[in-house]
Write a structure and sequence with these properties.
The chain is about 85% helix and about 0% strand. By secondary structure, it is an all-alpha fold.
């Protein structure tokens, strides 16, 4: 096995030599950019859509129930149901949207899995604090988690979607604030 491993290392070294000798830097740069675009289309974009949907769309029901009932366990149960239900829904929606052959967005079930999982994660993040019995502490912790979630979404948009940082923060923050206020107003009425 040691001889086989040594031979494999020699093959890898030779392949790197040939690549550096015969593949122009411009071609290598184009290949790297193509790989990046595929990663963004096939993984980042469905994951970001899911994270945004899960983090933002579950705000209204979770906080509406929290303010209406002032009960941590009820808010947790509604948040968990909304998060998992949204994850399943978004996962299927993404998987069934196209087969990837026309758009180049990759295998539909991989995109659906990524989107659905990130949707559920986004909603569960601000739901978990409601496992705390003290309602006020749970509410404050959930609000803090929402700010972290919105910050992560803004960073991903800036990092992978080439959105200017301030623009990403303002867009995501505005959307999150509108949904949060909607939930609070409905729950307080």
């Amino acid at each position: 096995m040691g001889d086989l491993a040594a031979e494999e290392r020699r093959h890898e070294a030779r392949a790197e030599e040939l690549e550096s000798d015969y593949v122009p830097a411009e071609v290598e740069k184009q290949e790297d950019e193509s790989q990046r675009r595929l990663f963004v289309l096939q993984i980042v974009q469905p994951g970001l859509a899911g994270l945004m949907d899960g983090s933002v769309s579950t705000l209204a029901p979770v906080f509406a129930v929290a303010f209406a009932t002032r009960n941590s366990w009820t808010a947790f149960a509604v948040g968990l149901a909304a998060s998992l239900g949204a994850g399943i829904s978004m996962g299927f929606a993404e998987a069934l949207s196209d087969d990837g052959s026309l758009t180049g967005r990759g295998h539909p079930w991989v995109r659906g899995l990524v989107c659905g999982l990130m949707t559920a994660v986004g909603g569960i993040g601000h739901t978990l604090p409601f496992l705390m019995a003290n309602f006020r502490i749970a509410l404050a912790a959930a609000a803090l988690v929402v700010l972290v979630e919105l910050g992560v979404i803004s960073w991903i948009r800036h990092r992978y979607m080439d959105t200017p940082a301030l623009s990403a923060a303002l867009q995501v923050g505005l959307g999150g604030a509108l949904v949060f206020v909607t939930g609070v107003l409905i729950g307080s009425s």
